[in-house]
Design brief:
Two copies of one chain form a homodimer. By secondary structure, chain A is α/β, with parallel strands linked by helices. Chain A contains ten helices and 15 strands. Helix content of chain A is 30%, strand content 32%. In chain A, a hairpin with a 3-residue loop joins strand 3 and strand 4. In chain A, helix 2 packs parallel to helix 3 and helix 9 packs antiparallel against helix 10. The longest helix of chain A has 13 residues.
Chain lengths: 284, 284
Amino acid sequence: MSARRPLIAFQGELGAFSQQAARQLCGPDVEVLPCTRFEDIFGCVKSGRAAGAIVPIENTLAGSVHENYDHLVNFELPIVAETSVRIVHNLIAPKGVKFSQIKRAFSHPVALNQCLDFFAKNPQIEKTPFYDTAGSVKMITEEGLTDAAAIASSVAAEIYGAHILRRSIESDRQNFTRFFLLRTSDHARRHPLRAAAHTQWKTSLVFSTRNIPGALFRALSAFALRDLNLIKIESRPLRGKPWEYLFYLDFLGRADSPVAVNALNHLRELADFLRILGCYPKGA
Amino acid sequence: MSARRPLIAFQGELGAFSQQAARQLCGPDVEVLPCTRFEDIFGCVKSGRAAGAIVPIENTLAGSVHENYDHLVNFELPIVAETSVRIVHNLIAPKGVKFSQIKRAFSHPVALNQCLDFFAKNPQIEKTPFYDTAGSVKMITEEGLTDAAAIASSVAAEIYGAHILRRSIESDRQNFTRFFLLRTSDHARRHPLRAAAHTQWKTSLVFSTRNIPGALFRALSAFALRDLNLIKIESRPLRGKPWEYLFYLDFLGRADSPVAVNALNHLRELADFLRILGCYPKGA
């Protein structure tokens, strides 16, 4: 692994929306390592094969990715940055292919379903399910199909040398995915985050309480009584453990500020379990 | 529409997991109306084409379905029941086809990805993306494929006259989806819910506050100070409206009990917006 160009692992094919998040967080020349499963990307960072990982954590239409919260808790890789990617779907074809030639559009069914208005207006184009958004661009260009397009990100069009026939064909533009950049604890220690004085910080944590009625209210008092701003709160029932809940909570502030240290000590008194997932500059 | 067999709308093909939820809530002989989009099922009930609808609202791995929360607010169809379905994936083939013949398995990519351990153990079977889990069973049986299987629910196998080669091939068994049964307000008024005296009730609501630090804490005081048990709380940032949040909240109790009426009046004082989505017997 070259020290100059650290590899960043993500889930999906080259050209996935995660790669766009990697560029936003690590620069346009970031070198990436595509993986099959979410678990694999955590494993790659833990084993040192990759220097960091990009994970999607929530989507404005589809909600929080609980699986990645579980991996954050189990692998103990700190969050060091966040970013948000607008999910823009483009109709992409091999170079030289015109819109009038397109009879089929390949993509992941979730992406196809997010473009139903486009398909209603263009009934000559058949929705064709494929394994992956970016993978469908790879396939149509490798096979040199002349009657087919793919639906994917603009990064995928660029990577596979295809061209965009129609931009932003998704029905709902309020479709954003929030991504975290993770590093090893060791890397995070050696490269403490620095940011301009006016930067706002966020801290993400997971905690559990045994019983909800008063418990959550009291847990939140640790923040409310210190005027700490909550950005996100979400409960998740623990299957097979009735009345036990995990809570995901983000607050505005650095975890090492005096007021946050006091709030977290207060929360530790009240919670059965508490894990700080990371402290990072608030994304744009 | 026959008064005897009310139609229940759901999203997906016949044999989808939503149909299993419909059976759990309305009996094994429920007549169903498959729709393409979530929005369509709400429209079908609103227009009277269907007597009710089944909607998935959250999944233990994938989180809350924000889109359906939005439709619940916009269409004002009350929740009258809830149920939980364990997502069991089965390898299904046309009758007479044996496991040793299978070279490809069709299904929705999300389902294929939830069976990666099975594919790792059976490398001779190729994962093949298809539009829909139940739709892939329909396709392999209609085409009479002899080298292909589908991955879907047992209901799908039954509906399309196929047989199950391997049961429960999903990697993670902690995969449950929670579904709501919706009716028109008029239907809900004419058929008030009755249940045994020991039945526990749940009330679901959505509210918003402008500013989080003290506001959420104060909002929760409406419940905590009255010992009402919260079952779920989730914040959702409103895009384009910084510092405005929607909260989904479920509490244990009937919305028309004296203590809940007081709590809801208290919450109304504190919230910018409050909508009761329904009150229904707690699912098993």
